[in-house]
Fold these 2 entries.
Entry 1:
Amino acid sequence: MSVFTFLSRSLPPLINIPGVTSTLCISQKTHEECITNFIACLNLSYKSLPVLMYQITSKFRDEPHPKHGLVRGPSADPGNVGGLISEEFHVQADVGEDRILVCSKCSLKFNSELKGIYHSEGNYLQVKLPAHCVLYNLAQKYSMKFKVAHCFLLGERYSKCFDATYQSPSGSKLMFMGCYGLGISRLLAVCIEHLTRVAFPDKSKDQITQLRWPVRIAPYSGSIVLQKETAKDSVNPDELKYILDTIQSDSINFKLLGDILVDDRKELSLGRKILDQSRLGIPWILIVKVLINS
């Protein structure tokens, strides 16, 4: 807590946990303070730069209205951690939380959360754009987008507070810092939202019952759906092994990357199995039957 309050970052959005004594503990969103404090103890040379530090963790805050499925609450965006420049990375999505405006003349893009922007009627916002924009103070159409990443040019904001320096040929200098946040769980939600809507453009959200994943992060790269064992056209174990070996061999042009799911559930029909695979969002479904010569 003492390290965190050294920079006087705001506490209200954070989950506060009373300690066994009078000490107040918090669930910290990001760890620039701790990392800078650690780096300050290393007495680094300029020859060791740049230094890359990685923080992989879930972020939580006291969110009153968690929503959006995979963007599960109360998981949170790290908020403004300060610095010289702040850049956000968005993907267009109907369930997005941010209104992003784009100038049709100079292609300037910015978040409607910026000071000076206020709501107007319909899906337009009355905005006060920066002076260099040719549509200064005009109403702009916006689109809803989902923030998936954020980067900050921190400069010397943290290194100055914690005296984090390195030794250069001309003497001791303050570290110049930047941080880059990527929302892994948010990317999962955005992938599903975007690709599923693209696959079913004529259906409403309530009508869509299937998922679409990017091939490289799908739970399985493909699935093989088998008939019931009692069916006349079902395959035997040797035939199934031959099919699997063929699919995964280097001798064919088309090769599935990753694991392949074999749906051999005995009690379900072929149609029900195919429906389940579609709901999982498996990219390729191979239906295997034995050709019976009539």
Entry 2:
Amino acid sequence: MTQQPLQGVNSLRFNQDQSCFCCAMETGVRIYSVEPLMEKGHLDHEQVGSMGLVEMLHRSNLLALVGSGISPKFFEISVLIWDDAREGKDSKDKLVLEFTFTKPVLAVPMRHDKIVIVLRNRLYVYSFPDNPRKLFEFDTRDNPKGLCDLCPSLEKELLVFPGHRCGSLQLVDLASTKPGTSSAPFTISAHQSDVACVSLNQLGTVVASPSQKGTLIGLFDTQSKEKLVELRRGTDPATLYCINFSHDSSFLCDSSDKGTVHIFGLKDTRLNCHSVLALVGKVGPMIGRYVDFQWSLASFTVPAESTCISAFRRNTSKKRQLCNCHLRSWNLPQICLHSRWKLQQRGFRPVP
């Protein structure tokens, strides 16, 4: 089957369990499954115009669309819900809901019963998809990337986003917070600088977040708010594009503008590399904290000029696999499946 080139990709997003990903393009929308890796559907430019953002609800027929780009059909201040299973030849027949605001929409995380719409300084939570109504509204610190994550688990309705204080994360248990009421926020002081990314594991028990510097990733218990571990990516500043947990929370991956994807062990942290000075019983205060860091157990490279997102595939075999989607400088998405990781030298790492 001959396919047209996917030119002008504006964003790439995995769905809630990383089994699919969506491409928002100048020419419309493309949706792919990860396993097997194949196109599952597309919306042409004639149907939806140029797209800035597309989010998929699990593997269902519902898509959240936000227009942007050179020739948009929809405004960037609106979220349109597209029901691909609905009958009708015209695109208007497929559009079942619309949420409109006064400022551009930056992210639209969804779960089976709620949708969150993220603006630069505020986010809104609605019941979804039947008879949507506004449940909550939260002011945030300036959030130009639209950072936010929503736990997909049926057992936990946890929402996390940047807090008002620099480097803090705010956690909201939507199940225990009554709509229309204010409650004391649960705040984690994660970093001294602004938060660069935020990601919850599938069960909503752990939240991971790197700072804007991009050298460290902190993992925190969402119940106790205590720091569980601090992972070191490197010593040079980096812009992180994404961080994701494996489905069983055994591993964590991240990608950055350095062109390197790192994998860390979480359940068995002995797999990670440590500083050689960890063998020393006593160290000076200048390097004591450095010794405590854990480095990635494995890494591999993608083109440094690419914007890359990475996630773990759900696999019934014992082989761990990653799906990486990255945008080349000529705006063509490249999809790579990695089943073998380039291991770092096992054991201890010298202090640079």
